[in-house]
């Protein structure tokens, strides 16, 4: 009985030690600030916590027990985006090749960005011209550097009379609201045709032939 109790006690103590060790290790790693990085000093074997270098620079010398880390500006054609513990800057993307155009240049803190020119979208390695929405169709969603123009057929009461990559379907003119007569209904490709009221108006041909209106055949 005493042997069993002793083994149980030893097992319990061993578990406690392991849990404490794991908790301590986890807490140490988790407490590292995003603005710091670990470095093992080759001279002493000590695990040190060094300050990171700011964006646009790199670590030229790690910290030691008695000195802080040293930072050096990125040379031309290289960059680092944020605070870092790297020992060399990243190389910028090569110059943009046609048909791609440069959106943002290579700087000490940003990489060069190449995009398709306006009015085109990327298709594998090519930039393709956005398609036109034909008459009777309007733009549902304008194209981007990554996506083509999306068209939709003009619904009842709207129209589109020109090919376009940007124009949406337009509403037919409301002749009544303008105080005019609707002479011709609009379609998905044409606008409504409005005209003025004919009440009280007489054509010139009628006026010239009607004696009562002073035409050329009126009695003298």
From TrEMBL:
Disulfide bonds join 74-89, 96-114. GO terms for biological process: adaptive immune response; humoral immune response; negative regulation of B cell proliferation; negative regulation of myelination; negative regulation of T cell proliferation; neuron apoptotic process; oligodendrocyte apoptotic process. The keyword Disulfide bond applies. Residues 199-209 have a biased composition (Low complexity). TNFR-Cys repeats lie at residues 73-114. Residues 73-114 form the TNFR-Cys domain. InterPro entries: TNFR/NGFR_Cys_rich_reg (IPR001368), TNFR_21 (IPR022330). Keywords: Disulfide bond, Signal. Residues 199-220 are annotated as: Disordered. The keyword Disulfide bond applies. SMART domains: Ephrin_rec_like, TNFR. Residues 1-21 form the signal peptide. One of its GO terms (cellular component) is plasma membrane. This is TNFR-Cys domain-containing protein. It comes from Ameiurus melas.
